[in-house]
Amino acid sequence: MAGAPISKTQLTILSFLLSLALVFVLGTGEDGFVRAMDRKLLGLKEEKLSHFRFYWHDIYSGKNPTAVMIIQPPANKSKNGFGIVSMIDNPLTEGPELSSKLLGKAQGFYGLASQEDIAMLMAMNFHIVQGKYNGSTLTILGRNQVFDKVREMPVTGGSGLFRFARGYAHASTHTFDPSTGDAVVEYNVYVLHY
Ligand SMILES: *[C@@H]1O[C@H](CO)[C@@H](O)[C@H](O)[C@H]1NC(C)=O
Ligand SMILES: *[C@@H]1O[C@H](CO)[C@@H](O)[C@H](O)[C@H]1NC(C)=O
Predict the structure, then answer these.
(1) How many whole angstroms from 128 Cα to the centroid of ligand 2?
(2) Element (H, E) at 171
(3) Which three-class secondary structure state does DSSP give residue 151?
(4) Which of 65, 110, 161, 175 is disulfide-compatible with 136, CB 3.0–4.6 A?
(5) Domain segments of the chain: what residues?
(6) How far apart are CA 90 and CA 1, in angstroms?
(7) How far apart are alpha carbons 112 and 183 in whole angstroms?
(8) What is the atom index within ligand 2 of the atom nearest the CA of 134?
(9) How far apart are the C-alpha atoms of 59 and 40, rounded to whole Å?
């Protein structure tokens, strides 16, 4: 059978066996609980860069608030609201109007973490509910000096199609109502993922 062309199936099986062999070779370290892996075994191919844009709605007013203050500042001791913590389940929409298409929810909390500035610690997951990324999440953890024009926060990871994600988000306030605390913020998220 010399010279017979290798079929596609044979090729697939061969490359699978080769990567398996690679795992065994790389995996024979001293520690039994850790092994090196070929990233192809997790289906990881080319890393790509995506830009997502969301409008984030922080709603304190009305009958259905999406943000609730869960920790009040200690009476008359707080500088710049230091110590306040809010839990959020904020809609992420395609446009600045709340009635525009719902793309996901920003779930997590933020707290005022600076005594010198109005700066928050943001810890939230963007849970996507549309299209290809439905069910996947992006995790944002960072510092947000809310009255700056553009604030940058790291994307520290993700789940589902965002496994191994990393990147950053730029947040800029679209509207803010100081009487209610309601805000609409534009989030531009740049993510490297597979
Ligand atoms: C802070 O509040 C406490 C309790 O209400 C009060 O006893 C205290 O005098 C206040 N301190 C200042 C500096 O206003
Ligand atoms: C997103 O996924 C959920 C859970 O699998 C499903 O119920 C829902 O219909 C999906 N939404 C879209 C827009 O595909």
Answers:
(1) 10
(2) strand 166-176
(3) strand
(4) 161
(5) 46-193
(6) 64
(7) 16
(8) 1
(9) 43
Q: What is the pLDDT of residues 64-119, one digit of tens each?
A: 999 999 999 877 778 889 999 999 999 999 999 999 999 999 999 999 999 999 99
CA atoms of 109 and 125, how far apart (whole Å): 9
Q: How far is the CA of 63 from the centre of ligand 1 (A)?
A: 33
Average pLDDT of the chain is 90
Q: Is the CB of 76 under 6 A from ligand 1?
A: yes
24: tokens are 């065994």
Q: What is the pTM of this model?
A: 0.81
Q: Closest-lying ligand to the alpha carbon of 73?
A: 1
| 46-193 fold | AOC barrel-like (2.40.480)
DSSP code of residue 30: S
